[in-house]
């Protein structure tokens, strides 16, 4: 097992720009979820992918989008960045959609600051 | 929608002592899962313990145990023999039974273990 790796660890962007965050899931994990954690808050669910298809989405606007690739990597894209998008973005993976109830393996996150 | 409430923003305990973190949740579901996650300064969410709602027996993992009261919708975490490495944010989380469902997190409790 290699764990979940996220890149970059820190990022500063300007309001209105676009950003792509990357995640490399644990080998063999077909399910990946993304969470947004604002300062002092618990993580909020953005969306989940299973075998490259989105199969769950939280209360986030369409400018938050994602991709999952066959090599267990995934991306979170955010367009038209707003100041409130400043947060820690966490990627989490699970073996498949039936085992998410056993808990996810999380990465250490990307700290995004929008100025 | 499910909500998770952690009423203790901060707690402190001395090394080797026992501490209990509180969590309540609101749901109309009968079948679901509950989790406690630990987030140290490294930012990575680490699964501490998991409980299935249809199991009456409280889950235990070494020094960590839960008190699950389904009727009261309460799910507290007890840490015995506290260690300095237990210092972290602790998040209670809820997940509906089924596929494609996300973790709903509380706002967290900051636990400080002192020598």
Query: How far apart are the termini of chain B?
Result: 41 Å
Beta-strand content estimate of chain A: over 45%
Largest beta-sheet details of chain B: 6 strands, mixed
Gyration radius of chain B, in Å: 14 Å
Q: Element order, helices and strands of chain B?
A: EEEEEEEEEEEE
| Overall residue-averaged pLDDT value of chain A | 91
- How many individual helices of chain B? 0
Termini separation of chain A comes to: 37 Å
- Largest sheet descriptor of chain A: 7 strands, mixed
Spatial shape of chain B: globular
Instruction: Give me the count of strands of chain A.
Output: 11
Features:
heterodimer, A: 115 residues, mainly beta, 7-stranded mixed sheet, 4-stranded antiparallel sheet, 50% strand, B: 115 residues, 6-stranded mixed sheet, 12 strands
Describe this structure in words.
The complex is a heterodimer of chains A (115) and B (115). Chain A is mostly beta strands. Chain A has no helices and 11 strands. Chain A has strands at 5-7, 10-13, 19-24, 31-37, 44-50, 53-57, 64-68, 73-78, 87-94, 105-106, 110-114. In chain A, strands 2, 4, 5, 6, 9, 10 and 11 form a 7-stranded mixed sheet that branches. Chain A has a 4-stranded antiparallel sheet with strand order 1-3-8-7, with no helix packed on it. Chain A is globular. Chain A starts with a strand and ends with a strand. The relative contact order of chain A is 0.33. Helix content of chain B is 0%, strand content 52%. Chain B has no helices and 12 strands. Chain A binds chain B through residues 33, 35, 40-45, 48, 50, 55-56, 58, 88, 90, 92, 97-98, 100-104, 106-109, and chain B through 4, 33, 35, 37, 42-47, 50, 52, 91, 93, 95, 97, 99-108.
């Amino acid at each position: 097992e290699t764990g979940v790796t996220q890149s970059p660890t820190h990022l500063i962007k300007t309001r209105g720009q676009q950003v792509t965050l990357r995640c490399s899931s644990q080998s063999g994990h077909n399910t990946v979820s993304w969470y947004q954690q604002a300062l002092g808050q618990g993580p909020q669910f953005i969306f989940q992918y299973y075998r490259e298809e989105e199969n769950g989405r939280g209360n986030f606007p369409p400018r938050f989008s994602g991709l999952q690739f066959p090599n267990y990597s995934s991306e979170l894209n955010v367009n038209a960045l707003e100041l409130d998008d400043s947060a820690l973005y966490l990627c989490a993976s699970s073996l498949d959609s039936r085992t998410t109830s056993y808990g996810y393996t999380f990465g250490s996150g990307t700290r995004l600051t929008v100025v | 929608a499910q909500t998770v409430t952690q009423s203790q923003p901060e707690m402190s305990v001395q090394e080797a002592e026992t501490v209990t973190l509180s969590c309540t949740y609101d749901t109309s579901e009968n079948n679901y899962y509950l989790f406690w996650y630990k987030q140290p300064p490294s930012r990575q969410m680490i699964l501490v313990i998991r409980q299935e709602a249809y199991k009456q027996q409280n889950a235990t993992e070494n020094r960590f145990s839960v008190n699950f009261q389904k009727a009261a919708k309460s799910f507290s975490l007890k840490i015995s023999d506290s260690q300095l490495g237990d210092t972290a944010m602790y998040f209670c989380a809820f997940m509906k039974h089924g596929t494609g469902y996300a973790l709903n997190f509380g706002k967290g409790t900051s636990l400080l273990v002192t020598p």
